[in-house]
Amino acid sequence: MFDIKNVTTFVKLKLKLKMKKIFTTLLITVLTINISNAQYFSKDSVFRNDFITKIGAQDFEVHVEMVNPSKYKNYTWERQIRVLPSNWRNAICDPFLCRGENDNSGKFFTDSGKKESFIAHFRMDDNTGGYGSVKVILTNDTTYISDTVVLSLNIWNARLNAEIQSINDVFNIFPNPSITGKYTIDAPGAQLITVYNINGQEVLNQSTTNENEMLDLDISNLPNGLYLVKVKKENKVIEKKVIKG
User: Fold this and answer.
1) Does 78 reside within a domain?
2) 180 within domain boundaries
3) Is-contact 195 217, C-beta < 8 A?
4) pTM higher than 0.70, yes or no?
5) Range of the domain at 151
6) How far apart are CA 151 and CA 148, in angstroms?
7) Does the residue 21 lie in any domain?
8) What does the DSSP 8-state code read for residue 43?
């Protein structure tokens, strides 16, 4: 004969073990999700927009902060170049060392909870402009969990081999920004108005003999974005940045 008491005890024990297994599985799943969502970098992407205004070799930096959220200290990073003009160079500085332009990976260690900086250096000559972007993949050497950041730089040449404006030379342009791309320029004595895009390419050239009246500038046919307006007065070139859109 079956002992109903023993059967009941057995069923309860089996049910208890099954519930414990389910709970353990759920706990592992939650922990796995939390770990897989670990974030080392403070941002997913960092974008910098800047200008070349000086003569000589250029070096622009794009920074991102990272933190080690675990007790495991050792990390490996990998660089993937997404976009880089042919006359640009790129190098990565990790928390331990500034690497060479040909180094696509590196290793370092950092304490738990410590904040560090990653820096992407974009180097170029003074007669260039354009857009560069690199991806950095950071992996913990113990957990093999990774995080990714994209570091990008947009550069256009504010020099363009022309004489830079004197600090006392100014002109007004309004409205700025302009949704329509139509502006009014207050620049008495202007002889030539030239507009350049962010790549340093000339997109408009407008001569004028107007000595005193306001001048109209229309770039409504150009894409939205940032432009450099240069006004030539006698032997000097005066410049201002404008935004369309």
Assistant:
1) yes
2) yes
3) yes
4) no
5) 45-157
6) 10
7) yes
8) -
